[in-house]
Amino acid sequence: MKKIIALTLAAVLAQPVLAQDFKVNSEMLDPQQGLVTDLGKVEFTQIPDVQNKSAGDAKKQLSDFVKNIKSASGQFAQQGGTNQAKSQSGSFEFKRPGKFIWHVKKPYEQQVISDGKTVYQYDPDLNQVSKRPVNQAVGASPASILFGSSTLDDSFKVEVLPEKNNMVWLRATPKVADQGMAYVDIAFANNLPAQLNIKDSFGNITQIKLRNLKSNHALPDLHFKFKAPAGVDAVDM
Question: How far apart are CA 21 and CA 205, in angstroms?
Answer without folding.
Answer: 36
